[in-house]
Amino acid sequence: MFSQLYRAGGLALSTTVASAIMTVAALTTSSAQTYPSRPVRMVVPFAAGGPTDAIARIIAQRMRAPLGQPVIIENVAGADGSTAVGRVIRSAADGYTISIGNVATHVLNGEFYALDYDLLNDLEPIALVVSAPALIVTNKSVPADDLRGLIGWLKANPTTGSAGVFATWSRVFGVHLQNSTGTAFQLVPYRGAAPAMLDLIAGHINIMFDQAGDALPHLRGGDIKAFAVAAKARLRLAPDVPTVDEAGLPGFYLSIWHGLWAPKGTPRPVIEKLNSAVAIALADPEARKQLIELGQEITPPDQQAPEQLRALQRAEADKWWPIMKQANIKAP
Description:
Elements: H1 2-34, E1 40-44, H2 51-67, E2 71-75, H3 82-89, E3 97-102, H4 103-112, E4 123-131, E5 134-139, H5 147-156, E6 162-165, H6 168-181, E7 186-189, H7 193-202, E8 207-211, H8 212-220, E9 224-229, H9 244-247, E10 258-263, H10 268-283, H11 285-293, E11 297-298, H12 306-327
Parallel strand pairs: 1-2, 1-3, 6-7, 6-8
Antiparallel strand pairs: 3-10, 4-10, 4-11, 5-8, 5-9
Helix pairs in contact: 2-10, 4-12, 6-12
């Protein structure tokens, strides 16, 4: 008798649990079908006016039509972007708060800072949007004509050479260059690329690693010298600048790529709607023109899936985290 009641009770319990699961699934599906019913907030991990902010605004503007709701930019600066990413991770997983960031904020900060969240597992990838290989540039007074000459000059002048670093990725790149070439130079911290570039032009620092969108106007104006682009192919906006492979430092690549993420647990249909909106935004001719003028390479449609961003994020962590650990690159 007890066994029968137990089985009956178990059946009732199982039915209740199953009903609850079906209710949650129905609510999730219904929510995804009506999503979005209000504006979406895109959190930018830097102050307004920088490359990430510019990229975010171009994409957000073109996501409005396919979503049927505005995408509002919120700039949250602090701790090299880790403050903003943490805010998104702690937001509701409903698709109304999303994160834009780059290789620094969504990979390198995982080793650079003692974070209270997991960069690789606490976010749902939406799409890889653009990438920009780093340029190795110097002021005009550096007495070198090519990258091999620059490396030789840095080796001969270990107390004179100095590099401006303004983000996690530029710090890592500077240390990686030293370790890869046997050079030694001072890393001078800056709050952003703009003040670092001003000091480079003025001759207060010798070398800098920067995105094309920041560096090319000064290069075209004759204010600085470019020695290599850290990529396998030359930039279409700077075809005269050799790749690191051509310049004598093969395989020394760094792309400052940007992607979009949502909090972990965001329903898959919502992720798919956001991904579709991003794809439409990146296909817009005016948006493409603006992004290219910023020195960005637009991700091809067949590489925009969430799974590909996840794979890239993990591959970059596998590449850079051991280098950072070995060099003991940590936040001061």
